[in-house]
Amino acid sequence: MAKGAARTYSSPLRAEQAEQTKARIVQAAVDLLAEGDAGDLSMADVAERAGVSVRTVYRSFATKDELLDGVIDWINQDIVRRGGTPPTERHNLEAGTTTVIEAIFEIEPLYRALFATAAGRESHRRSASIRREGLAQAYAAEMADLDDDAARRLGAVLHLVASSNGALFMKDYWDLSPQDVGQVMQWAIRVLADAASDPQGREGL
Fold this sequence. Notes:
The protein is built from 13 helices and no strands. It starts with 11 loop residues before the first helix and ends in an 8-residue tail after the last helix. It has a domain at 65-197. Helix content is 74%, strand content 0%. The chain is elongated.
């Protein structure tokens, strides 16, 4: 090594400890959000719940928005843990709808807390690309005969019908149970996709 050259060394143990600390901070944020409003969430509260310093929180997440992104990642991973790998085939996606909806309602307070603030909604919006890609793969056959604009509109309505926002809407405005919501969502996305496969059914799309 040349004289005066800086020596760099990345400790696997240190990296693992940093990831564990980051996970503990996210879990603390998840717990606090489930108990209250995202607007009241502070980095100091998260630090206290996680048992770390405020400086450590900011070292892991430079801003509150970054922390909320971490919470959204936790939600997506939690749903995957419950239902397995996100499906990329139509049959598996539709068959897993009820499981996903039940998982959403199990952490309903967390969703509501995130949707209650602009920062939470924006964080959720940033993660939507994963869902869009999954829908595009699962319904590639149905979209194959559509032009780009029509395919985008089909993807949008499928996304809306099977969304967490849609699930909460059905509970709030129609008093549907989580089981009913999952069942009707499963039916709706199947009917929409079938209609898009039919030249007559997709008129107006």
